[in-house]
Amino acid sequence: MDYVVLSALLGVALLHIIITYDIACQWFKNFTKRMSGFPEHMRIGGDVKIDTAIPSWHINGHGLSCRQNFCLGFIKGVGRTCGEEIEVSWSHTNPLATSVREMGPAA
After folding, report:
1. Cβ distance 27 to 54 under 8 Å?
2. Measured between alpha carbons, how far is 72 from 59 in angstroms, rounded to an integer?
3. Is the pTM here over 0.85, yes or no?
4. Whose CA is closest to 87, among 65, 55, 62?
5. Within a domain: residue 107?
6. Which residue, 1, 32, 66, 106, has fewest beta-carbon neighbours within 10 Å?
7. CB 44 within 8 A of CB 6
8. Domain tally for the chain?
9. Residue 7 host element (H or E)
10. Local confidence pLDDT in tens for the 107 residues of the chain
11. What range does the domain containing 18 cover?
């Protein structure tokens, strides 16, 4: 996940980044320490504010502490974001599985 996030933000100049992830409460622990192991050009600058949140549908499965600290509704500037948009489309693409399962390199 670290590599995906840092690669996606490569060359992007932002002052505030909000990342939603189903287990942001665990993933973000020691993120800055892990980031120091990446090449300099991939690291997020120290002047950039990073907030993490758990998407609206997943946060209900977390404890009270997570709901208080990682709820999208409590982060300034987020508004009424759900954070689950990518997973909403899965129900529409699942029927494609039988047609495309042999199109990958493993087949």
Report:
1. no
2. 9
3. no
4. 55
5. no
6. 106
7. yes
8. 1
9. helix 2-8
10. 999 999 999 988 899 999 988 899 999 999 999 999 999 999 998 899 999 998 888 888 889 999 899 988 888 888 777 767 667 777 778 788 788 777 777 66
11. 2-100
CA dihedral 59, 61, 66, 70 (to 10 degrees): -10
Residue 93 phi/psi, 5° resolution?
-95, -15
How far apart are the C-alpha atoms of 49 and 8, rounded to whole Å?
A: 16
- Identify whether 42 is part of a domain: yes
What's the length of the chain?
107
Distance CA(90)–CA(82), nearest Å, equals 16
Give the pair of three-digit tokens for residue 79.
Answer: 């508004």
In a domain, 106, yes or no: no
DSSP-derived secondary structure letter, 86: H
Residue with tokens 């982060």: 75
